Amino acid sequence: MKARCNHCKHNLAYKKGGATTHLKRHLKLCTPRKATLVGKDKGPKQSLLSFDVTEGDEMLSIFKYDKGKVREELVKMFVVHEYPFRMVEHEFFTKFCRSLNPKYEPIKRQTLKLDCMKMYISEKESLKLALAGINKISLTSDLWTSNQSIGYMCLTGHFMDSEWKLQKRILNFCPLEPPHTGLAIADSISECLIDWGIEDKISTITLDNASSNDLAVRVLKENFEAKEKLHFGGKIFHVRCCAHILNLMVQDGLTEIRDVIENIRESVKYLKLSPSRLYKFNEIVKSLKLSTSKRLILDVPTRWNSTYAMLECALENKSVFSRYKERDYNYKWLPSDEDWKRAAEVSKFLEVINDVTKVFSGRKYPTSNLFLRQIWKVRKMLNDMSTDNRDFVKRMTLKMKEKFDKYWGECNLVMAIGAVLDPRYKMKLILYSFPKNYPADDFQRHIDDVRESLEFLYKEYLSVDSQINSSMSSATYDSNPSQAKKQKTDDFDEWVITNSDIIPGNKSEIDMYLDEGVYKPGNEEYEDFDALNWWKANSLKFRHLSKMARDILSIPITTVASEFAFSAGGRVLDQYRSSLKPETVQALICMGDWLRQDFGVELASNVENECMQEG
Fold first, then answer.
1. DSSP of 339-405, one letter per residue?
2. pLDDT: is 176 or 609 the higher one?
3. Nearest alpha carbon to residue 164 among 541, 531, 409
4. What does the longest C-alpha to C-alpha distance in the chain come to?
5. Residue 367: what pLDDT?
6. Neighbours of 348 (CB within 10 A)
7. Alpha carbon of 265 to those of 262, 269, 301, 412: distances in Å?
8. What is the full DSSP assignment across 458-491?
9. pLDDT > 60? residue 112
10. Which residues pair with 49 in a beta bridge?
11. Which pLDDT does position 486 carry in this prediction?
């Protein structure tokens, strides 16, 4: 009778009821068995070697499998890339992980979810500590309804870090019970701010133009004022979303050519509903040797930028539509020559608005300093269009100017002060554009308001810095009693600290800054000019004014950052994961944003894709 080793498959002599000492001796020496015991408490262990690359040099190091580290990296991967929890249980996901390391131990989706929640709590505490060192934070907020018909409010904080880099973090993505009244929105925002411990740091809040938001701002402003924590005297507390205003303005104007747009929309819809029709249309495109890079786009009527994309593509293929009509007698929506002319005129106008919106919607660079110049472009275009002889252009322009004047008829201080704090513009842009924007008997009043507000905000920073210096001086005095006599006689040093911005001639830092003239970067540098870098480089020269510029330039003028989160919300709460609890959704959305910011990962947004459907 023979005995076979289960590890090496070696046959050994064996007699039933006989001795087994030689079998035990074989097990101790069996090499395959030793390999199976590596990493366990039994038997000998063999260290694994791995290569570490440090500063270009490869170094051998001992590899130790860390189960906790693997689970931590799994959480980051699933959260950052928005993978569904169920994927961790997929057979080939486990096979893949074991091909990388045979010691990988599979986990259940419930375990992964618990790990996510633990990391969310840990990351939130870390972010709280970081925000504790920030002086002023600007907010953006918007509402979104999920496929579960649950209303969510997204609250995003914007601030400048110690390296003068513009930062934004989603603070909350929380459910909001209906009805979504202004009071309910204000209460929810207040709860979030208290939870984060930043209720005394809020300088501005950017919202769209819903009437409920106006009430929410009024309530929040009263709360901050009652606690004497209303920064900038409340002069710029409420910032209206520029992108939303432009959308309202354009939508009003487009109603004047509704019939033209409707014909083009129905034409595109008719073609896209049938693969055979679309194929026939594309064949005509090829026969005319037109560009095939842009396919027909069906717009979303409530989003003007998708309407612009639809018109642009249709205009490039306008000759194709007439030829297609000759081949399909059921096609009934062919635009006339006059319709195409009107569509081309509107497309030129929408191109300007589209460019302005792209500038406004930046999330990685300051936009408040670009506000005035872009709005000036829109105003100038409306003025030019108002002199057009065509009736439809006049009617369209009249409607848009009414909306423009409703929101931007009065001087917008964020728009004006942001421009002044751009060294390329300073007060020059104000002096140039205001006489063209406002009536002759009124523009000087707006210019004076800007200058007075600029001085008011600057004095607030000067006052705060003086208090800090005074506190530091008192602390030094208290901690060094032996130097009391010396400090009492050092009045001059204290005066220098308190009045450090005064130079001969009683010029403040604002006067110095404005008197220097505008900064003129080269042609290639002009569009990429970063006002924050300029202020960082000149922070020693303008100690107080540079702090003010940091906070003003970090104010967002659109709610794009919060709307961007709704794309993530739509991906996280897709049709397969609609059962996720609101607290889990908040953890995934917020932590995903934090980790992507920390690691510099950029996910494609669905904001534009949701607007346009290509075929």
1. HHHHHHHHHHHHHHHHHHHHHHT-SSS--TTTHHHHHHHHHHHHHHHTT-S-HHHHHHHHHHHHHHH
2. 176
3. 531
4. 117
5. 79
6. 10
7. 5, 6, 9, 37
8. HHHHHHHHHHHHHHHHHHHHHH-GGGHHHHHT-H
9. yes
10. 62
11. 46
Q: How far apart are CA 61 and CA 16, in angstroms?
A: 49
Q: Which tokens hold the place of 160?
A: 């400048």
Q: Tell whether the model's pLDDT for residue 531 goes beyond 60.
A: yes
CA-nearest of 459, 435, 457 to 447 is 435
**Closest Cα partner for 210 from 255, 247, 168?**
247
Q: Which helix (H) or strand (E) holds 159?
A: strand 151-160
Given pLDDT bands bounded at 50, 70 and 90, which one contains residue 99? very high
Residue with the two structure tokens 């970081």 = 130
* Both structure tokens of 508: 């403040």
Q: Is 12 helix (H, G, I), strand (E, B) or coil?
A: strand
pLDDT at 605: 52
The values of phi and psi at residue 522, to 5°, are -65, 165
Which residues are paired to 104 by β-bridges?
none
Whether the Cβ atoms of residue 258 and residue 287 lie closer than 8 Å to each other: no
391-443 pLDDT, tens digit each: 989 999 999 999 998 888 778 899 999 999 999 999 999 999 999 888 889 89
DSSP 554: T
How many Å apart are CA 172 and CA 143, to the nearest integer? 12
pLDDT tens-place string over residues 14-70: 777 777 887 888 888 887 777 666 545 444 455 555 555 555 555 556 678 889 999
Average of per-residue pLDDT values in the chain? 85
CB 176 within 8 A of CB 586: no
Percent of the chain with pLDDT over 90: 56
Residue 96, CB-side half-sphere exposure with 13 Å CA sphere: 7
Nearest to 251 by CA among 399, 406, 407: 399
**CA–CA separation, 431 and 283 (whole Å):** 56
Pairing of the two strands 238-240 and 202-207: parallel
Helix (H) or strand (E) holding 297: strand 297-298
Q: Tally the C-alpha atoms within 13 A of residue 363's C-alpha that lie toward its C-beta.
A: 16
CA distance linking residue 263 with residue 253, whole number of Å? 17
Task: Please give the Cα distance from 425 to 514 (Å, whole number).
Answer: 10
What confidence tens digit (pLDDT) does each residue in 537-594 have?
Answer: 999 999 999 999 999 999 999 888 777 777 665 666 666 556 788 899 999 999 999 9
Burial class (CB in 10 A: 0-12, 13-18, 19+), 462: buried
Structure tokens, 311: 């018109």
For residues 245 and 301, what is the distance between their CA atoms, to the nearest angstrom? 16
* Cα separation values, 193 from 86, 172, 198, 560, 592, Å: 34, 9, 5, 20, 20
Q: Return the bridge partners of 160, or none.
A: 166
pLDDT-derived band at 80 (thresholds 50, 70, 90) equals very high
Sign, CA dihedral 406-409-410-411, equals positive
Residue reference for tokens 């006049």? 394
Distance CA 260, CA 469 (A): 66
Helix axes 182-196, 211-226, angle to 10 degrees: 50
Residue 611 CA, chain-centre distance (Å), reads 18
Helix%, strand%, coil% for the chain, nearest 5: 60, 10, 30
**Residue 16 has what pLDDT?**
75
